[in-house]
Structure formats: structure tokens, C-alpha cells
Amino acid sequence: ELLLIYEVLNQKNLNLKKKLYKEKTGKEFDTRNKYKVYETLRKENKNATIIVPPNTYLNKDTKLFPLSGLSLSQTINCNENGYYSSYQSDRYGFNNPDDEWESNQIEYLIIGDSFAQGACVNKPYDIASVIRDLSKKTVLNLGYGANGPLLEYATLKEYLDTNVKKILWIYYEGNDVEDLADELKNKTLLKYLNNSDFSQDLKFKQKQVNEYTLKTIKQKIESEHLRFKIFKFLKLYNLRSLSSSSKEPRLQKEFKKIAKLIHELSIKNNSELYFIYLPVYFRYNSSYDDTNYLLIKKIINDLQIPFIDIHTEVFMKEKKPLKLFPFGLVGHYNVSGYNKVGRSIYELTQK
What's the rounded Cα separation, in Å, for the pair 141 and 165? Predict the structure, then answer.
């Protein structure tokens, strides 16, 4: 039954996307899977790779827990707009121009999940690039697909420098707290949560991170099958966000603890922290329960962290909010959506 649902929904959306993309661009929608694109690109560029989200290692007993991907490589991301987006990763495997790390002052440092990373669009259309272009200052993007609050905190602990002026914590209401439920089961991530002095010193272990990434890619290619595709579909399109798991008291408690730790870390670092709340697609095509939204907002407000609500600042100002999603269908934001979100964040963080 699950297989049937997956096939029907996926094929219906794909057929519509192909039609709309052809009408808009005159080009054919790229229907290859990520691994076919990877194999083709590798023939031209031996440094080509695909994203390997940190949550890949949640259920693995590894000596090292990578929080980024392969460094200095053309990295294939995803396709929701008719083409596969990609980016040249920096020295630590994130989506940044590498020379951003050389700046004496970092105006913005971003943590978050795939929306922060810039899923399914190319530079200069991701949020970090939009802010970088508007501010004419250094922006470091530490976002990575499928990250939840604990992975985001761990990433901040590993890569935050004292020269960061503003920290943008980009929170996606679709699945961030649900992702936390899985993260809390990992022994390494719990060390970040329970020991303020814990660090893996990942900045000095990029060679090992690269080795883990390459090994994981090889395993994924060898084991690519339908079950993985279904899992990816469920994660990406967030069907489980319709559940009530994020209302569980334990997750609320742990989220509040992480928010407090991130706030304390920003204060200690003399950095201004902003919490950016991103809305899910289902707000605009079905009935919406704002219980989780109100819970998260209260936690952030109680900690006196500036709360930027992208739903009210961007999407509610649109006559047709669904136009900010690829072809008006479920997924990440499209180029226009990312641009408006980035501009809004920039304007609201100016002092």
C-alpha cells in the first residue's frame, strides 16, 4: 500500500512538473536519479560528489561523527525545479565560497537544515548567497540537509569562531523537532548536549570526514533500491510532520535545552542570535494546526531570542503563497521563494 501511494503521488507530481517546466523553459525536466547524475558527472570531474547528510550516521557506530560533506568538490544536491542543483563545497564541506573562511569578521553565520543549505537551487539563489549579495559582507553557511536542532547545535560548537557578528538559526517547522527525536538516540550527539566541553575537533579532521563521505557514497550506490527511495520521499515531503510527535513533552524539553545552549553560546561569543522560523508547504494547501508553532515561539520568546516569522513576513504578503514552491507543489522553496526569504532576513537583522 505504501509503495502504491509513493508511486501514484510521485508520478502525478513528476508529470505535472515535466509539463510546466517544458512550458516555462522549452527544456526537458531531468528525470534521472541522483546517482545517475553522479556517475555521469564523475566521468568529467573526478572531484564530483553528492550530499551525504550528517543524519546518515545517526544509526551507525562510528569513531567520528561528520557534520559536513566532502571538501572542495562539486556537490550534487537535489532536483525539484527541473535540473539538479549543485555547489562547490568549501574546505570543510559546506556550501560556501572557500575564501569566506579567510575573512577577519563574519557578518552572518547560518545553521539549519536543507533550506539553510540551499536545497534544489544554485548560487546565487540560496538564502546565504542572497544575504551575501545584499550585505556585501561575509556569510558562512553551515546548514546541511536533514539537520535537526541537536545536529545544528553540534555544528555550531565545532565551527563557530569568535569573529562572528550574527548567528542565524534557520528553523523549518516541517520536521526539525521530529528530527530531534532521532538525534537524541545518538551517543556522540548526546555528548554535545550534556557536556559543554565536548568537541570532536572536526576542523582538524577534514581528511577523515572526506574518507567517511566517500565510503558512505559507495555504500549508498551499492545499496540503492526502492526502500531508500520511499524513505527519502517520506523525509523530504514531510508526511510525518502531520503527526503530533513534536508535541511530546520530552521533545519540547530537549528543544528548550538546546535553544538555551545555543543562546548561551552566542552570548559567550559576543554574537547576536536570531531565530528564523520557516513555514511548511502544508500551511497553504490544507488546514493548519498552529499548536507546534505556538510552542516553539513561546520557548524562543521566553529566552528573549529575536523571533523572525517568515510566514508573516513573506508568505502572508503573497496573494498565492504556493507560487514560492516549485511549480506550486510540495518541496523546498523555489528561486523566488528563497530570494524573498533571504531579503526579509537581511532587512530584519539590520541594526
Answer: 14
| Amino acid identity for residue 272 in this structure | E
Residue with cell 566517500: 214
- What does DSSP assign to residue 146? T
- The helix-helix angle for 249-268 and 291-302 (nearest 10°) equals 30
Shortest CA distance to 226 belongs to which of 84, 65, 33?
33
Q: Residues with Cβ < 8 Å from 32, sequence gap 6 or more? A: 40, 84
Q: In this predicted model, what pLDDT tens digit does every residue of 204-255 receive, in sequence order?
A: 999 999 999 999 999 988 776 444 454 454 444 444 444 445 567 889 999 9
Mean pLDDT, range 124-146, rounded to an integer: 98
Chain segment 177-199, per-residue pLDDT in tens: 999 999 999 999 999 999 999 99
Output the pTM of the full model.
0.93
Task: Answer whether 19's CB lies under 8 Å from 31's CB.
Answer: no
Task: Tell me how many degrees the CA angle 308-313-317 measures, rounded to the nearest 5.
Answer: 165
Query: Contact 128/170 with Cβ under 8 angstroms?
Result: no
With a CB cutoff of 8 Å and minimum separation 6, the contacts of 306 are 272, 273, 274, 275
Q: Which three cell numbers stand for residue 324?
A: 514560492
The region, left, alpha or beta by phi > 0 then psi within -120 to 50, assigned to residue 304 is left
